[in-house]
UniProtKB/TrEMBL annotation:
Stretches of the chain forming a coiled coil according to its record: 16-61, 269-436
Protein name: SMC hinge domain-containing protein
Domain SMC hinge, chain residue ranges per copy: 106-224
One of the record's GO cellular component terms: chromosome
GO biological process: chromosome organization
Organism in which the protein naturally occurs: Candidatus Magasanikbacteria bacterium RIFOXYA2_FULL_44_8
SMART domains: SMC_hinge
GO molecular function: ATP binding
Length: 707
């Protein structure tokens, strides 16, 4: 058989060898094409990187141009604002002189306000003291001042004050003025509080040489109004001739020692405008170039992706060829094996087949075992469920029996009362029938005799016998009825005793349950009180809240027994204990309500009606949350409970719901955006364009992740 197989395969060897050669040649072609494509990919990626670098540089340059334009615009607006400012305060002439200072050979030094510095603590006082001279222009000499005035007149630029250094003389400080420098409230001489170039000392001595800075008007009054020129730290001024000037000073735009004038001419502003326009045009050109490069980058990326896709196709084709070549190689090797090699392969294949069959059988057995285990587990689980169901049914039956006993208790009392009445009637009737005739005979014939009256007694006996014969014998029906009634009474008495014992057992059980319930209720109530106060403080931001149990007297319950045959109440230990228990219950007060005390921050509330609608809502929410914290429910449905709350209180309410949501799932009906924002999922009804209402659900966490 092996020889026949090999002979049949020899004819295919040549075809397989030719096919292998063809496939290998095709693979070589694909490998060469793949190398070219990979080279193209590298070049394309290099061009993409270069283009990205160019775009990055252009973006940086664009940002720099934008910043530069912003700076130029800010400088332009600032200088324009300064010009408007000087026009506003009437100093356009001063500004014109300062802008044209180069025309005067550098002999214009500036205005008084910018030639000195002063500490911020004294600036208001110094500005007030030198107010009339702050805008004066300091020039080198009177000749320069004359040329400046002629320049203003010729160009119709306004009027300015000039202080020539060669003509201005400082003021003399008197000994009287120096004598008060050390007194309390005196700050010092105004000129000594300034910082300036010594070259300008005559100017500042002329303006402030005899001016004294004091703390306030009270100090000035103590030193003497009209004695010196004094200025307070608040800007009030007292002149030597007694004039006082002061009051409230708002924010104004007057000159100050903090003013620094920029010497920017109209030509400079026009230069700024021209430079801004040039830079803006450069920015536009830069943006156009940037967009062009971005378009080229997009094309390069598309080209790179196309080449990469072509490379992927070549790689897949090469892998398929490799697999086909490997398969043909294996087939060729099989066709070229010797009979001995073929036999060895068949033996190996047989062993592998046997091993696989064993593994398959083992796996099938394992599957059957697992299936049996699953069935056994399901059966046990079903038995447990059935047992739980049966226990629940039994418990329900027992509960129904207890309820029936409790419900029939009043019926038994009514029946007992009827039996008592019937028993009393029967006893009365029997006593009347049995006792009354004999009593009448005795009453009418008292047996009080003496021996000497024997004949008379004999007559009396004869008479009594005669009367007895008239009465006749005792009726047997009456005796039978009495016996029957007595047996019925004894039977009912036994039933009453049994009922009394059962009632006692039930009351004992109820008392035990009441004790357990009271203990658990006390623990729960204590926790609810604590949590109520805590949630109240969270919702109100403070305040106090408390709960108080209200107790009252219980309603009286009359329980009567039945009399026995002798008309006496039966003595039964169970009944006696039941009566004792009833007396004990009557002495205990019963819980009939809960009182809520709520005092928001800053309020003393005696009744809940004094709270506003929002405050009552917050108080109710605090109580509900306290109850849920003590005994969480799986689901809690809230219907617009926060409708009366503002945003801040709603946020506090949402925070508490987040805390309670670890144990309960909240379903909230709301129109409040704050509540909806805190929800995990939103469910609503929306109407589409066709007018049909549809349910809509949104999970906020998924929306956030998508963003």
């Amino acid at each position: 058989m092996q020889t026949q197989y090999q002979e049949a395969g020899k004819g295919n060897v040549g075809w397989i060898e030719n096919k292998l050669k063809e496939l290998k040649n095709k693979r070589d072609e694909i490998v060469a094409a793949l190398k070219l494509a990979e080279a193209e990919v590298e070049k394309a990626q290099a061009r993409v990187l270069d283009k990205k670098k160019i775009i990055e540089n252009l973006t940086v340059e664009k940002t720099e141009k934008t910043v530069q334009i912003s700076r130029l615009q800010s400088a332009f607006l600032q200088n324009q604002s300064e010009q408007n400012y000087f026009q506003f305060v009437g100093l356009s002439a001063v500004k014109a002189v300062l802008d044209a200072k180069n025309k005067f050979g550098g002999k214009v030094h500036g205005i008084v306000a910018e030639l000195a510095e002063v500490d911020e603590d004294y600036r208001l006082a110094m500005d007030t003291a030198a107010a009339s001279s702050l805008a004066s222009v300091v020039v080198e000499d009177d000749e320069t001042g004359r040329h400046a005035i002629e320049y203003l007149r010729y160009n119709k630029l306004g009027v300015a004050t000039f202080l020539p250094l060669n003509k201005i003389r400082g003021r003399f400080v008197s000994d009287e003025l120096r004598s008060v420098l050390g007194e309390q409230g005196v700050i010092g001489l105004a000129i000594e509080l300034l910082k300036f170039n010594p070259r300008f000392e005559p100017i500042f001595s002329h303006i402030l040489g005899d001016t004294l800075i004091v703390r306030d008007l009270a100090v000035a009054q103590r030193l003497g109004i009209g004695r010196f020129r004094m200025v307070t730290l608040e800007g009030d001024i007292v002149e030597r001739h007694g004039v006082m000037k002061g009051g409230w000073r708002g924010k104004d735009r007057n000159l100050s020692f903090a003013t620094k004038i920029s010497l920017t001419t109209e030509e400079k502003l026009r230069e700024y405008q021209l430079q801004i326009g040039t830079e803006q045009q450069k920015l536009i050109d830069l943006e156009n170039t940037l967009e062009k490069h971005k378009g080229e980058l997009m094309n390069l990326e598309v080209e790179s992706q196309t080449v990469q896709h072509r490379c992927g196709l070549h790689i897949d084709e090469r892998q398929n060829l490799d697999k086909e070549i490997a398969g043909l190689d294996r087939e060729l090797s099989l066709l070229q094996i010797t009979p001995e090699q073929y036999g060895a392969l068949m033996v190996q294949f047989s062993k592998e087949k046997t091993m696989m069959v064993k593994q398959l059988a083992s796996a099938q057995r394992r599957v059957e075992e697992i299936g049996a285990e699953i069935e056994d587990f399901n059966r046990k689980e079903e038995e447990k469920k059935q047992r739980v169901f049966n226990l629940q049914a039994q418990m329900q039956v027992k509960q129904n029996e207890v309820n029936n006993i409790l419900n029939n208790r009043n019926d038994l009392k009514i029946q007992a009362a009827k039996l008592e009445t019937k028993q009393e009637d029967l006893l009365t009737e029997a006593q009347n029938e049995m006792s009354e005739p004999l009593v009448g005979v005795v009453d009418r014939n008292p047996v009080v005799v003496k021996l000497e009256d024997l004949p008379t007694v004999a007559d009396s006996v004869q008479k009594l016998k005669y009367q007895l014969s008239l009465i006749g014998g005792i009726d047997e029906d009456v005796t039978a009825e009495y016996t029957t009634t007595k047996e019925r009474y004894d039977f009912l008495s036994g039933q009453i005793d049994d009922l009394a014992a059962a009632t006692f057992d039930l009351e004992t059980m109820i008392e035990e349950l009441d004790g357990i319930m009271k203990t658990k209720r006390a623990v729960a109530f204590k926790k609810i009180r604590k949590e109520f106060d805590r949630y109240f403080k969270i919702l109100f931001g403070g305040g106090t809240a408390d709960l108080t149990e209200l107790y009252g007297e219980p309603e009286e319950e009359v329980v009567e027994g039945m009399p026995n045959a002798e008309g006496q109440m039966p003595v039964n230990e169970k009944i006696a204990e039941g009566e004792e228990m009833s007396k004990k219950k009557k002495s205990e007060k019963v819980l009939y309500g809960i009182d809520i005390a709520a005092n928001p921050p800053g309020k003393k509330i005696k009744h809940l009606n004094a709270l506003s609608g929002g405050e009552r809502t917050l108080t109710s929410i605090a109580l509900i949350c306290a109850i849920l914290n003590n005994n969480p429910s799986p689901f809690v449905v809230l219907d617009e409970v926060e409708a009366a709350l503002d945003e801040a209180n709603t946020q506090r309410f949402v925070k508490i719901m987040g805390e309670l949501s670890t144990h309960s799932q909240f379903i909230v009906i709301t129109h409040n955006r704050v509540t909806m924002h805190a929800a995990d999922a939103l469910y609503g009804v929306t109407m589409s364009g066709d007018g049909i209402s549809k349910l809509l659900s949104v999970k906020l966490e998924e929306v956030k992740n998508e963003k």
